[in-house]
Specification:
By secondary structure, the chain is α+β, with helices and mostly antiparallel strands. The chain is built from two helices and six strands; from the N terminus they run ββββααββ. The protein is 18% helix and 13% strand.
Amino acid sequence: MRYTSPVEIATERYTRQDLEICGTTVPRGELVLAVLGSANRDEQHFEDPDTLDLARDPNRHLAFGRGGVHHCLGAPLARMEGRIAISALLQRFPSLDLGVDSGSLRWRRGIFLRGLQRLPLVLE
């Protein structure tokens, strides 16, 4: 979820008061869009952020929000579904492999959501 999040930009937020971000003042009432895809690759928070490390610890990514009122209510269900689906897929097809070079994969264009156009798989 940190490495390639399906949600690239958080839902819109508006500043409740004047806010300074890196020397720039954002006036009260202004629209702010947090780019989660960029935050999840922040080298100040993640060692070697462009490397996929499934055992990364800590892995404090923002894919489901950061707690509080903006934390995704469905996060536990999504994690469980992902674990079950991937585990079942790999148990059923243990020799499953990517059918093309990873560099040839194409992503759907979109501002908020991200996903592959196709995921060609082969059984070896």
